[in-house]
Amino acid sequence: MVSAPQTATSGKSARANQEPLHPSAVNISATPMGSERMEMRKRQMSVQQESAAGGAAPAQQGQPGQANPRGSNACCFCWCCCCSCSWNEDRDERNQKASYDVKEETSDCEDCPKPTLEEVRTWGQSFDKLMCCPAGRNAFRQFLRTEFSEENMLFWLACEEFSKDANKTPVEERARVIYEDYISILSPKEVSLDSRVRESINRNMQEPNLQTFEDAQLQIYTLMQRDSYPRYMNSAAYKNLLNTLSEQSPES
C-alpha cells in the first residue's frame, strides 16, 4: 500500500521528463537577446544622427535629473563598442566639421564651363587628359563618390593646392590639415598608401615643406589611373554624358 503512490509519482515525473518542450519555450531566452541588440544599435544610430544634426542631446546631458542619452544607449552586448562609443561619437563630430571645412575650401565642384563633346572624347584617350581638364576632374570625382573613393581625388586636389602655395608661413599648418584629413589612420577619409610612403611622411611632418606629400600624391594618382579610371571609361555615367553631348552637337 505504501509503494503504490511512490510508483505513481515516479511515473508522473518520468512522463514530465520525457515530454518535449514547446518551441516557444526553447527560443524565449534567445529571441530577446537578438532583438535587444538590434534595438540597442538602432538607438545608438539615432543618438549619433541627432548629435551630427546639432540636436539637443548635449544640452540634455547637462540637465540634472535627466538620463544621459549616451550612457543609456551604451552597447551592453557588443564588446567592441562598450569602451569606445563616446570616443567614436566625439571623433565623428570632429571629422564631420573637418569635412565641412574641406567642402568650403574646395567646393563640391571646380568652377569650370560645361565640357564639350571633343573634350569628353579626349578623356577616353588618357588619364592625364582627363585630369588636366577641370570638367573631367569634376565628372571623375562624381564617379569616385559612387565608389566611395572620393577621398583619392580630394587628397590629390589638396596636394596640388598645397604644393603651389609660395607662402612659407602657413606650410606647417596646412600640412597638418592634410595629414589629419587623409594620412592619419583615425580619419574616415584616409587614403591607401604603402608603409614606405607613410613612414616618409611621418618623418617629414617634423619639418614639413612643399614636397612633403609628393610621393603620396603620385601614388594616389597612379592608383586612380590603374584602378578607377578604366571603370569610369566603361561606366554608364561616362557613356551617358558622351551620348548626351553627341545628341546636342550640331554635327549630329
Structure description:
With 252 residues, the chain is an all-alpha fold. Helices cover 68% and strands 0% of the residues. The protein has helices at residues 3-18, 23-27, 30-52, 57-61, 69-72, 85-106, 117-123, 127-132, 134-146, 150-163, 171-183, 195-204, 214-233, 236-248. Helix 9 (134-146) packs antiparallel against helix 10 (150-163) and helix 10 packs across helix 13. The model is unreliable at 1-35, 55-91 and 97-107 (pLDDT under 50).
Quick rundown:
This protein is mostly helical. It is 68% helix and 0% strand.
Index terms:
252 residues, mainly alpha, globular
Overall form: globular
Q: What's the end-to-end separation, in Å?
A: 110 Å
Largest sheet entry: none
List the uncertain runs: 1-35, 55-91, 97-107
Tally of helical segments: 14
- Share of residues in strands: under 5%
Rg, nearest Å: 30 Å
Mean pLDDT: 73
